[in-house]
From TrEMBL:
Residues 150-303 form the PurM-like C-terminal domain. This is AIR synthase family protein. It comes from the Bacteria. Belongs to the HypE family. Residues 32-138 form the PurM-like N-terminal domain.
Length: 325
């Protein structure tokens, strides 16, 4: 592909032919359009942005998932995404089209509109770089802030930690990992692509949560650190109460990684004083969850290991994924 903007002919074939699928999307992607327009009819608009840097496989799909998860963590229903895609000069048209197809697949799956974006070939990147901006809406009384955690709130984690990180590592080192994983564990990891969204639990939990945070870069330690710092509170987390799948344990152990510092899209951290009602509704929808600790007044963030050791989480961790990818 040549340096510069992606040719209009390619975009016209793969993007501009899309029709807006939602009545509240007034202006979508088209030639020369640099902005999108959405009618939110008095609701609160919620906007977020994120890059995809660690993943190579399914990067386009993940670029949609991560911003939709951010919106869900604020209690917002995702409406649309804008995608900026920078391709290195040595990349092919097929690679670019693959990213577009993955973006479109995710948009269709999660009922969000591709609102537009920007694409070009640039010598400043050495591999495809995708930056997505997500747009959503929420009623004012259901808007959830990261800083809302209160003393006495229980800390709940949905699904199991390490889903995204394990999937990324498996796709990168598939041949090596197949030697240590059972057929069931391989099947489980390959299905993780279908468990990366926290939209459903976010829309459920917004009725009960004081704060929410999707567990992404830095894993559980990163998420609880940000919640506590934003809320000016502390936390006690108990390793014995945390659910990890065997596949996550095995992959983390193989690379000598701490699964609690591993990128974990697909899991939502929720603080709430209504844990029983929340857990009941999550389980009704088939969403697993566990109470792993509580929010405390002392601003110290304490992780109590299975052997009783107290570990302080006193800084934002570097994600374990970067030791491998």
């Amino acid at each position: 592909m040549e340096i510069g903007k992606i040719p209009i002919e390619i975009l016209n074939e793969h993007i501009f032919e899309l029709k807006t699928a939602r009545d509240d999307v007034l202006l979508g992607p088209d030639i020369g359009e640099d902005s999108a327009a959405v009618d939110i009819k008095g609701d609160i608009a919620v906007i977020t942005t994120d890059p995809i840097t660690a993943a190579s496989s399914m990067a386009g799909y993940l670029s949609v998932v991560v911003v939709c998860n951010d919106l869900a963590a604020a209690g917002a229903e995702p409406i649309g995404v804008l995608s900026t895609i920078l391709m290195p000069p040595e990349s092919s048209q097929d690679e670019f089209v693959q990213i577009l197809e993955e973006i479109k697949e995710a948009c269709k799956r999660f009922n969000v509109q591709l609102l537009g974006g920007h694409s070009e070939v640039s010598p400043i990147v050495t591999k495809p770089l995708i930056v997505s901006t997500g747009f959503g809406k929420v009623q004012r009384h259901m808007l959830i802030s990261t800083k809302g955690a209160k003393v006495g709130d229980k800390i709940i984690v949905t699904k199991t930690l390490g889903i995204e990180g394990t999937l990324i590592l498996y796709n990168k080192e598939k041949e090596r990992l197949r030697r240590i994983l059972t057929p069931h564990e391989i099947s489980e990891i390959e299905d993780y692509i279908n468990r990366l969204s926290v939209i459903e639990e976010g829309l459920i939990a917004r009725k009960y949560a004081s704060s929410m945070h999707d567990i992404t870069e830095g894993g559980l330690f990163g998420a609880i650190y940000e919640v506590c710092k934003a809320s000016k509170k502390g936390a006690k987390i108990y390793e014995d109460k945390i659910v990890l799948s065997n596949s996550v344990k095995k992959v983390s152990s193989f690379f000598n990684l701490n699964p609690y510092k591993l990128i974990s899209s697909g899991s939502m951290l929720i603080t709430t004083s209504e844990e029983d009602d929340l857990i009941s509704e999550l389980k009704e929808k088939g969403i697993g969850c566990c109470v792993i600790g509580e929010i405390v007044e002392d601003t110290k963030i304490e992780f109590i290991s299975s052997n009783g050791e107290s570990i302080l989480i006193d800084k934002l961790p570097i994600d374990e994924i970067y030791k491998v990818v």
